[in-house]
Amino acid sequence: MLGLIKKKRQPRTVNTSRGHYFIGQTDALIMEGQKQNAWGGLYNPAESGIAVVIDTFTVSNFSSQFFNVEMWVNPKLTGKGTTSSFLHPADLSLNPLPQPRVNLQYASQITENPIGGVNVMNRIVPPNSTFMSDSGKSGITIPPGGSVAIFLRSPGPFKYESRIVFRWWEDAIEVGGPQ
User: What pTM was estimated for this model as a whole?
Assistant: First the structure.
């Protein structure tokens, strides 16, 4: 009797050879009241020499009420942005471990909206849940001097707590390469 030959399924892996791959998160983002908002985002410094490719991002809602999430490309954000220290390379086999060149910043309890830029996505995050963007679809590429921000908008007079997590590649830009 002939058996069926089944192709062995390969495990899904992250293509770390594409560039340095990192994961990072904001500290707790607090919004209290209807006009209190928050944001977290990746900023690629003008002198970085890299392109940043966002793989995925997640927004966790630790509160008992929903809130709105907006993704902005190249906005000007208000509030004193704090630089996150919760960043790490995802490939722990590298030695020495690379350091990210991108800045992951965040701010809580702000009343102003993003200025300029383009709002490319709006979602609602239900209570006590996590929203995750699509993975592996060649995300948004941020050139030097560019940014992407996730803006959290409070819809009501409640207290909200959230965290934003980003996963991204940093690829060196070849100067004088093919155009």
Answer: 0.84
